[in-house]
Amino acid sequence: MHTMIRFFCTISLCCIAVFHSHAQTPYLEKEVSVRSGTYLYEELFRQISAQTGVVFSYTGFDSKQRIFVKFNKQPLRIVLNTLFDSDSHRNGNCSYKLKGKYIIVNCKSVQKPKPENTSTDKSNITVNGYILNAEDSSELEESSVYLRQSKQSALTNEYGYFNMSFPKTTDVISISVAKEAFKDTTVVIVSKPQNTLIIYLQPKSAPISVMMNDSIRVTLSMDSVKPLPSPVADTTPAVSSFWERFAKRRANLRNISDTLFSNVSFSLFPPISTNRLLSVNTVNKFSFNILIGSSKGISGFELGGLVNFDYGNVKYAQIGGLANLVSGTSSGVQVAGLVNTVAKDMEGVQVAGLVNLDRGKVNYVQIAGIANFVKDTVIGIQIGGIANLNGSYTKGIQIGGIYNHSRNVFGLQLAGIANYGDTVSGGQLSGLVNTANLVNGFQLSGLVNRAEKVNGSQIGFINVTNSINGVPIGFLSFVKKGYHKVELAFDENLLTTLSFRTGVDAFHNILIGGIQIEKGRSLLTFGYGVGSAIRLGRKLYLNLDLTAQQLQMDKTDYAFNLLTKSFLGIEYRFGKNFSVAAGPTINWYSSENNAATDPIWSRIKQKTLSGSTDGAFGNQLWIGGKLALRFF
User: How far is residue 155's CA from residue 178's CA, in Å, rounded to a whole number?
Assistant: First the structure.
């Protein structure tokens, strides 16, 4: 019993699946087979009804006439077009239409031929039919069927069917058919009001790749023989994923390898265009797009109210209200209210209200309200309201409101806040920070300069580098392979100071701290200075220092007591990590207190060259000396 139930359930499910599959197929796509022979129309109607489920309805049609036919698994559409071809029967000009499952046949009486008219017949022509695979007769969906001259086109549906209707302009029509991975085919027909075609496309043969030796790879196919160089780094910018998706969504772009041309194109938005569905296959000399336009390239001028899409190269001038998007190269002038993007090289002037995006090279001028992004090189001037970001080298000038970035710079970087360059041959100027690995030139910043190696100068509040062949100038410079010493010094004031000297021999910074110990309160000092060591011999150097030190009796003493000292001395370097320097100093002491009541002056009182009082300040000048021991 259970076996019977499973059997009937299986049969029922199969019937439902078959019925569902049958119901899903449109009537005009159902297959019809009729053995070769001569039949009455009414007999053919019965066979077709039995195979497809349609019902014929007609008046004024002689169903008793005979016709010779042979159909082998042909779509009902093709069968009906053949049966009602005006050359196949005597009922006159007949046509049909499908309404539900009913085929309604209408016939018009045959008109007497009119005198020959040499003028062109302007009536519409309909061309329909199927595009099939020549190998297995399978339907080819999304095949492109088009007329090159008039830009008429259609895509086949899931059954390989297409239909086009257009005004008659000539008695001979050349119809082109293209499909990705199939050979292009052209069919020439003599035009009639109704034209039904079945066109078979040959698949392109699969290539066979053979390595001939270590440097040559040869690709062999039935269509061509092409030598390809061995694997070498490809420097051609890859098409962006956006354009890959753009092409995948447009069958005509994938299928049609031919390039069509137009002098002038007008477009509201695709596909409402004078180039119709073939706009992405057409290069326009002049293009005017009210809202959005698409093309395979521009060879003159393009103006778009909103967006211009160009799957190819653009020459001379392009203006987009919002954006210009180009998958190839752009040369000339490109202006957009918001965004310009070029997948390959840009040569000329590129201006965007917000952003310029370029995957190839940029030559000459690039200006953006916010930022410029270039994957390859920039040769010229680049101005970004906020930033300029280049993936390769920049040869020229980068001006960024906040930040500039380039792998290599041959020229100048100017930024409101920061610059970065891997190798800079020229200069970096910024409000805050400059960073580079190698600088052949200079770095100038309001706060920090950082580089691994500098052949030139660093000018900033703080300079940091591994090595420098030049001079860093700033409040504090640290050169890893430069000059850095710890100094213990004694002077005529019995002040013992400990200083840190950093930079290079030619110019270094001095940070000072010290103390004078006596009975009672200690005299403290801290200060800053700069110095230079000029080489006189292998181990002998001339030292020039200028320092300024605040003196105070304790931590709560905030009175102005400044000791300015200039030192001229001789330094002898016993080795890499120890040297001794000694020499005279000129000292100038300025204090809020006069000499008579100043407790600090009473501690360091020296025989002065001059003394004066300037308002509330007392000033003293004298000559002293210093002995310094330097380590590291």
Answer: 10
What count of residues does the chain have? Answer: 632
CB-count burial class (<10 Å; 0-12, 13-18, 19+) for 32: buried
Q: Which amino acid is located at 391 in the chain?
A: G
Tens digit of each residue's pLDDT (9 = 90 or more) over 89-148: 555 577 788 898 999 888 876 554 444 443 444 578 899 999 999 888 889 999 999 998
What distance in Å separates the CA atoms of residue 412 and residue 39, rounded to the nearest whole number? Answer: 88
Cα dihedral 293, 295, 297, 303, rounded to 10, equals: -20
- What tokens does 273 get? 């265009």
pLDDT tens digits, 473-528? 999 999 999 999 999 999 988 888 999 999 999 999 999 999 887 766 788 899 99
> Cβ-count burial of 196 within 10 angstroms (0-12 exposed, 13-18 middle, 19+ buried)?
middle
Token pair recorded at residue 482: 């430069």
Contact of 391 with 378, CB cutoff 8 Å = no
Q: Are 315 and 298 in contact (CB under 8 A)?
A: yes
- The label of the residue with tokens 């066109």 reads 199
Peptide bond into 237 cis (omega under 30): no
Burial class (CB in 10 A: 0-12, 13-18, 19+), 474: buried
Task: Give the separation between CA 375 and CA 74, rounded to whole angstroms.
Answer: 55
